[in-house]
Amino acid sequence: MKSKISLLLFFILIFTSCSKNDIPTTENFETKVSEKVLNDLKYGPDAAHTLDIYLPANRSPSTTRILVFIHGGGWITGDKSDMKDYIPLLQKNLPGYAIANLNYRLAKPPTRAAFPNQFLDLKLALEYLNTEAKNFDIKAEFAFIGASAGAHLALQFDSVYDLEDKVKLVCSIVGPTDFTDPFYTGNPEFDTALEQLVDESAYTGITDLARAISPAHLVTKNNSPTILFYGKDDPLVPISNGRFLKEQLDASGVINNFTLYDGGHGDWENAENFDMQLQLKTFIEEHF
């Protein structure tokens, strides 16, 4: 009983010895960071090197990681605005993450090839975000969410270019993974397309360029957790591409999830789109 009284007296003395101005308030300890959107930030020297970034409220450089959107368009068209409809969904489902939405240099045959230029653009973007992370109050760790050609870029970057392991997760929405697939090589225009998309001078000593730009052939145990979504009746990316990538990820012991929906190249029904959102939310929460 005596010890309890002594403790009580101790606290009374502590608090009564402080003036009103000396008593800590909640405001002294809270650091409120407001939500912010920054558009068309330059991350490289080309006019196409721009990104939008969505910074959540109460973000922290120790916990707020970055979801990176990469648009599609067959490597020759498309724009970051194509991905804007996804942003409110991700903000609602995953409010604690920052979101970066990228543009990159589009291929302009025959003057500019897609590969490796577009892979190098992703590298530039991550370097910029890494440099600016402190100013943005975010952590320089990334999850790639790519659609179609953008998913191919994300997968290839994770397999080949992410030497510092900054990419912790990849989502492929109908992304091509294997250009050695007969679906592509059997097309009479395939060789011409390959010549226009690939800068051969950047792949010195490599004879099989189709394989060199096929992320499914480049999987290792170091690949990041990967979630895949494909359509049964896709006229642009065969089911075999998604399944082959899953087989390679499984063989290398890489965490992955593969879902096949009714429909084509991402043009799925509301139920499938809702399922994709839920799966992606869960996968990111578990593995990022």
TrEMBL record:
Signal peptide segment: 1-20
UniProt xrefs under SUPFAM superfamilies: alpha/beta-Hydrolases
InterPro entries: AB_hydrolase_fold, BD-FAE-like_dom, GDXG_lipolytic_enzyme
Keywords annotated in UniProt: Hydrolase, Signal
Molecular function GO labels: hydrolase activity
Gene3D superfamilies assigned to the protein according to its UniProt record, in alphabetical order: alpha/beta hydrolase (3.40.50.1820)
Name of one Pfam family that matches: BD-FAE
Hydrolase is among the record's keywords: yes
Domain BD-FAE-like: 51-249
Keyword Cell membrane found: no
PROSITE patterns registered for this protein in UniProt: PROKAR_LIPOPROTEIN (PS51257)
PANTHER family: AB HYDROLASE SUPERFAMILY PROTEIN C4A8.06C, ALPHA_BETA HYDROLASE
UniProt name for this protein: Lipase
Lineage: Bacteria, Pseudomonadati, Bacteroidota, Flavobacteriia, Flavobacteriales
